[in-house]
Design brief:
Number of helices: 5
Distance between the termini: 23 Å
Order of helices and strands: HHHHH
Shape: globular
Number of strands: 0
Structural class: mainly alpha
C-alpha cells in the first residue's frame, strides 16, 4: 500500500516538477535525490558490502534493471510533460500486466536472498 501511495504522489509531484524544465533534466534531478536517500539508508543500516563480493550475474542483471528503469523514467517524465497525470499514471501501470507476460518468458523464480 505504501508503494502505491508513493507512486501516486510521484505522478502528482513529477507533473508539477516538469512544468518549468525539460523532462530529461527533471529525471536527472529525481535520480540524484534517490541516490542520496538510498545511500544514506544503506549506510545507516550497515548494508554496504564490498562490490567484489557481488557475483557477475547479479551485476549484469542489476545493470540491465538500472538501464531499463532509466528508460522507463525518461519515457514517463516525457509523457507527464505533455499529458495529464491522471491519464499517464494508469498507462504506466500496464507494467503489471507486462510483468505477468514477461515473467513466463524469462522463467523468473522467487528467491529468498
Amino acid at each position: 500500500m505504501l508503494s502505491a501511495a508513493f507512486a501516486a504522489l510521484t505522478a502528482i509531484f513529477a507533473k508539477i516538477g516538469v512544468a518549468g524544465i525539460s523532462s530529461d533534466l527533471a529525471s536527472l534531478i529525481r535520480t540524484v535525490v534517490i541516490v542520496v536517500i538510498i545511500s544514506a539508508i544503506v549506510a545507516a543500516t550497515g548494508q554496504w558490502q564490498p562490490f567484489s563480493s557481488i557475483s557477475g550475474k547479479t551485476w549484469l542483471f542489476l545493470c540491465l534493471s538500472g538501464a531499463v528503469t532509466g528508460a522507463s523514467w525518461l519515457a514517463y517524465f516525457r509523457a507527464l510533460k505533455i499529458g495529464d497525470a491522471a491519464r499517464v499514471a494508469p498507462i504506466d501501470k500496464l507494467s503489471i500486466v507486462l510483468v505477468a507476460v514477461f515473467v513466463s518468458s524469462f522463467s523468473v523464480r522467487s528467491s529468498t536472498s
